[in-house]
Structures are given as structure tokens and as C-alpha cells.
């Protein structure tokens, strides 16, 4: 089992850039993503710590990370947002600090027309984020 965990970490670490896309589930991340991060976040493999102060430091090489987060109604930074702070901290803990954020936070709209309008507006933002992410040096 440990060999499989290390293989998963190796696969993650072999990426030049990391793109993570996730919906919000009950104000946090879906359990499958939590499980995946629990596999990746291994002491003395992806993060280390000072045993006296218990300060943590990342052990993976820093590289560009793009989060694409979706929610039906919770704006980024809202007090109910346990998705973004958790993901940012988990990546930071492993040494991945160069995180760009794209958030669609109103995926539920009262009418189909408003939903289409929201998607159309979001598309411009998404294209710009994709352009910036693609041109970031890894
Ligand atoms: C199980 C479940 C829990 C959800 N919890 C939240 C939530 O806490 N807050 C929120 O704004 N949206 C919540 N949503 C809405 C999703 O975040 C939203 O539908 C998703 O971001 C849009 O992507 P989708 O096409 O995969 O549904 C939830 C959706 C599901 C299925």
C-alpha cells in the first residue's frame, strides 16, 4: 500500500504545472479530493516539520497551480468557504505556493436565461485565466 502511495505522489510531482478543478460540497471539498490529498500529504515525503516548534515546510518543488473552484452560491472569502482556505493550505504545506484562482460561485441561477448569462460572462474570465496559466514558466 505504501508503494502505491509513493507512486501516486511521484505522479503528482512529475507535473510541470497543476490544474485542480473541484466543486464545493457542503462548504468544503468532495470526499474523493480529501482522500486524494490525504494520500499526497505525507510527513517527511511531501512536507517536513521542525519537531521543536512544529512549524511545517513544504518538500515539493514550487510550480504554477491553477484552481478552478465552483459553488452554487458561496463567494470566495465568505465565512462559509472551507474549500479554498483548505486547498490553499494543503498545497502550501507541500511547498506549492504559486496558486492562481478561478471561481464560479453562482452556478445556480433562478432562471435558465440568467444561468446562460452567467456562463457567458464567466467564459471571458476563464479564457483569460487559461491564457495566463499557459504562459506561466514552470
Ligand atoms: C453534494 C453536493 C453538495 C454541495 N454543496 C454546496 C455548498 O455547500 N455550497 C455551494 O455553494 N454549492 C454546493 N453544491 C453545488 C455545487 O458546488 C455546484 O453544483 C457545482 O459547483 C457545479 O458543478 P457541477 O456541474 O459539478 O454540479 C453542492 C453540490 C452537491 C452535489
Using brief descriptors, characterize the structure shown.
globular; Rossmann fold; binds flavin mononucleotide; single chain; two-stranded antiparallel ribbon; 138 residues; 4 helices; three-stranded parallel β-sheet; alpha/beta
Task: Describe the fold and architecture.
- The chain has 138 residues and is an alpha/beta fold.
- The protein has a single domain (2-135), classed as Rossmann fold.
- It is 41% helix and 19% strand.
- It has four helices and five strands, in the order H-E-H-E-E-E-H-E-H.
- It has helices at residues 2-13, 31-40, 84-93, 112-135; strands at 18-23, 47-49, 56-58, 64-70, 98-104.
- The strands form two sheets. A three-stranded parallel beta sheet has the order 1-4-5, covered by helices on one side. It has a two-stranded antiparallel ribbon with strand order 2-3.
- It is globular and about 55 Å long.
- Flavin mononucleotide binds next to loops.
